[in-house]
# Entry
Amino acid sequence: MTTTTVTRSAPRRRRPAAGAVSGTSRRVALGVLGAAIAVAIWYLVAVSGIVSGRGVPRPDEVLSAGWVLFTEQDLLFDIRVSMTRVCIGVTIGSLLALPVGFLLAWYPTLRAMAEPLVNFFRALPPIALVPLVIVYFGIGENARISILVYASFFAAVIVLFEGISSIDPLLVRATRVLGANPWEVFARTVVPASVPHLFTAVRVALGVSWATVVAAELVAAQRGLGAAIQDAATFYRIPDMYVGIAMIGATALLMDLVLKLVQSRLTTWQEKTR
Amino acid sequence: MTLTAEANHATTSDRIVFDQIGKHYARGGDHLQVLDQCSFTVEPGEFVSVIGPSGCGKTTLLNMAAGFTAPDDGTVRVGDAVVTRPHPSRGVVFQQYAIFPWLTVAKNIEFGLTLRANRRPRAERQRVVRRYLELMGLEPFASAYPKELSGGMRQRVAIARAYATDPQVLLMDEPFAALDAQTRERMQELLHETQLTERRTVLFITHSVEEAIFLSHRVVVLSARPTGVREVVDIAIPAPRPAETRLSPRFVELRRRMEGLLRSESTEAEGGPR
# Structure
């Protein structure tokens, strides 16, 4: 080497290369193929009559039942009711979990004291608390929301404090060396480093709350997806029950997708692990 | 590169003095003396490397100068003050880069100047950032995130960030150890050039004899545990040192001598010659 000039190459930005695009479309195609196979098996099971009693409705029966439910019985309203409940619950639960997560991650003593408790409450299925909640809050909207807040809080808090306490101590050290006071260490390093963990926490809370809201509505609610399924069951409208169940999955998928999109927008700096 | 006013940046207030340093650990009843009566001085504006057998406590010495660890015996002084905690007047470059992944290259370099301890007006910050982007050959990467950079480029960001807050002394803990051989040589040359114009007092930890000779005015060779100073070698090779310096007879001779010193230390550590 005879020169000490610094080489200046263009930044290695991640461009959507041809290979990457075909990779994405391939994944989508495979996903569609998997769903198609599942529907085909469902169809075969339905027409074969293996399932005794009232049998399994065919996919096309469920589809037309769905059409009727959406156009004539306003199933969308039920979905909206359930989603609203979940959004309120997750928002309150996560907002409460945020400061608690930071405190537990920051103070090992506090964490040692609280961790068994958090694990205990997290292990309780939220739906098991329904009778207790009815005793205290009655059967109104407050009762349902409070269960969701409970479910979201414990799901989120554990993800948060584990994520926050895994922040690289070297980054904290580097911040201090540059002259940061404790508040600046928190605001300028701990908080931004926690953002990915916050998203993970919200996604986990969303999953748990969604499962809980439907279960809660099955037991005690006038409207909402769970109530709609319960309603269909009362009148033996089996295809309608299938529509409701399919909507539980579809809505959950949609909410997670939206959250993922927001996350990738806000944390472009993050290294992709995949 | 022309010499600027910064060439005389170093003043007498930034002499680093290691005075009779001792450090020991109690490990399962065993008393392990790591450092014992270790004394040396880094003069203002001087580049001093510390080299020694692995596990001899090189990094511990740097951590003491940074204020991360306290010595059990003796004191570390910078200027007239005994080091007790991290301070922005002592910049640190870590082996694992420790740059902030959520900030762009330019924002990483600017970071220290936005903290209350050494806050500068925006115009001055931008001037400093531009200057170090240029010096480190990082201009094309100014708005890139660390994940888009190679290891060598990441370390340039870390070095630029350390210089940017204008510390009296710079402490570098094996900053090039994680890089491949070619990148490593290029980084040594870059750092040498930077020191020609941005002269600071530098304490440089390394396990590479070649690196120590190429960069330093003097090299402190440590002995095996309990570690003291085995010898301080004067590297009387005038600056600027181009890449070919590594092939000069003087360089090769120094290298042979220091490798011999180190070899005798590590065989002693393993229980004498075989």
Observations:
- Chain B touches chain A at residues 66, 68, 86-88, 90-92, 94, 96, 98-103, 111-112, 115-118, 136-137, 139-141, 144-150, 161, 165, 185-186, 189-190, 193, 242-244 (CB under 8 Å).
